[in-house]
Amino acid sequence: MDVRSQVSMVFHLDKCIGCHTCSIACKNVWTDRKGTEYMWWNNVETKPGTGYPTKWEDQEEYRGGWELIDGKLRLKSTGKARIVPNIFHNPSQPSMDDYYEPWTYRYEDLFNAPEGDDQPTAVPISKVTGELIDIEAGPNWDDDLGGSEIYAKNDPNMASLTPEQQSQMMAIERLVFFYLPRICNHCLNPSCVASCPSGALYKRGEDGIVLIDQNVCRAWRSCIAACPYKKTYFNWNAGKSEKCILCFPRLETGQAPACFHSCVGRIRYLGVLLYDADKIEDVASRKDEELIDAHRDMVLDPHDPAVIAGARANGIHDSVVESAQNSPVYKFVKDWKIALPPHVEYRTLPMLFYVPPLLPVMSQRNGDTIESVSEDLFHAFDQARAPLEYLGNLLGGGNTGKVSYALRKQMAVRLWRRAVTVGDITKEAAEAALREADCTPEEADEIFKLSTTATFDDRFVIPPMHREEAIEMMKDTDDHRRETGFGFLTGPRRGS
Amino acid sequence: MGSANHLDFLLYGAFPYIAMVLLLVVTIQRYRQRAYTYSTLSSQFLENRQHFWGSVPFHYGILFVLLGHFVAFLVPRSILWWNSHPARLYILEITALIGGLLSLIGFVSLVLRRGSNNRLRAVTTPSDWILSVMLLVQIATGLGVAVFYGWGSSWFASTLAPYLWSLVKLNPDVAAVVPMPWLVKAHILGAFALVAFFPFTRLVHILVIPNMYLWRRTQVVRWYGTNQGRVEHRKRSAQDQQQR
């Protein structure tokens, strides 16, 4: 057993209101530089939809993630065998057209336009060339199902659905959508790291954050093709790849990452998971249907004395183990099993988990009027508007079992809380529903509490990063303290 | 044999050393102080289709031709031995010419691509344009030599390789270059000019080719400090915990 610590995340999709505050917080902190305008380290997609970049989930086209060939893991894009002949032109690299050409507006036109009968307008100009551009698309062009005939219909998760299910999802009376906020999953078996010819990408040993060493990156661009979530981006100006850094400078000073901190819907949870690094290769090479369970089994119980001893032997500080014991992520993923990894079939073992959305039918059309269905608010979830198969493709690795377990439990929690607070459902009925959903009243109350009234400190259990110990290894801490803030920084200047 | 004048000494006796010193000093200094600028500066992200038809033939062509130059410089006898049969001489000359043509076609299409695409022009620096012209001239003179002064693989090995070795031995034999046709001289000068300009351009990406990738472990994990430091730290904290 090789115990390691990983800062992990849960996004509660039932609570996401799609406000994009997270994206803006991230953009303003990290990616408002030249060459990074198009990067959305954090983005929020409407599902069903094609996402960002367009149809990123279609790995036949993008060739991201791993594939299993004769039981062996192999990068779908350019691994060791294929990088040599393809080093001069990456065959599966997306181009700017798969994202969008960033633009701004010529605001000075508003002031400089000659006096006339019409309001002056600020015309859009490209942030790459500075010339006028005709905007055809951008990120979130399909927000809230805008243009769903073009976008939602082409969602790769819909491909395996029956034509009836597809038309059901598109029928205007039954329209269904939810939001999928995405950041880097800081995977346990990251394909971006495995693909980097320069060895610039690495996983931090202490907390599992995946980073790109900007001084070692040489713009071979393999990571961009290899990440199946398309969460490494190419800085076209600096000639370097960049990605979500999980705001590690904030984490190291005890603050939640910007996107977590700013989340209006309070859908985000962050905490440590301890896992067994010896199992990575074995788990990542399991059969599709075993992946979710195997991935969950890798996560170790931080209360188990053997695990604690293993953590100590590996130099994991007791305070980090304690943080793991209080981790909200552990509860969602291991205790309650209602948070699931996105597209586990890409075999990168993502460490960001999603609580699937219930999407209950809140109202229905009766002739010309829309009636709320309050009497039957908590109807069976398989009547929910998103077909289970759809959620299964997104969060169940192609299977509906785990998704339906998570939804059933959430529904039972709602019934239970309805019985407790409103009382129009008998406690017996609610308890029966809980039993059926593999849940107890105590667990239901806990789920309710962490999902609804949890405070900042409940949602973000940030482990002490012990930078002081890291500094100790390199130099005198007192010297470090005196020197902090002095010295010379150079900007990320493009090499000539 | 013509006699070498001062200009010849400057161009073929001194300039090569200036170029080599620049190459060494500036690349090392740049790597140590501005490692961030070591990048291929790939533009495939901005334009994905023409890139293939330019970059791939150019790189394979130029690599093959450069490899030929290196072999002829390092072991000139091997080339002379190979060329001792006319059939093998033809084969070598034709493949080398194909390599040169590939690099020319590839490079011309890369330059045209760069010039015609607004996005690419936005990320092109003056140094890129200067480098493009230099490389174009170099490829053109090289091809010119191959076409007009045939059997270059043989006479390079017997006359120019010794000149290059005389440079290595710090006793430049300028007189070996002086009687050469002007096209060959231009090619030699262009080569050293490229060597001199090399450290200031994106060409430095040649020095950081990912040579270790094929042998390294698939995943990369970095710990604070050294691994030894971590092990010691682990012991220390275990002791601390025992004391507590």
Write a brief structural summary.
In chain A, 32% of the residues lie in helices and 15% in strands. By secondary structure, chain A is of the alpha+beta class.
Walk me through what this model shows:
- The complex is a heterodimer of chains A (496) and B (244).
- Chain A has helices spanning 21-30, 59-62, 80-86, 108-112, 163-170, 191-195, 222-226, 248-251, 258-261, 280-284, 291-298, 305-313, 318-325, 328-335, 388-395, 401-421, 427-436, 441-452, 456-459, 467-474, 477-483; strands at 3-12, 43-47, 66-69, 72-75, 103-105, 124-126, 178-182, 201-204, 210-212, 232-235, 240-243, 268-276, 299-300, 352-355, 363-366, 369-372.
- Chain A is an alpha+beta fold.
- The model of chain B has no long low-confidence stretch (mean pLDDT 90).
- With 244 residues, chain B is an all-alpha fold.
- Chain B is built from 9 helices and 1 strand.
- Chain B starts with 5 loop residues before the first helix and ends with a helix.
- Helices cover 69% and strands 1% of the residues of chain B.
- Chains A and B meet through helix 3, strand 8 and helix 20 of A and helix 2, helix 5, strand 1 and helix 9 of B.
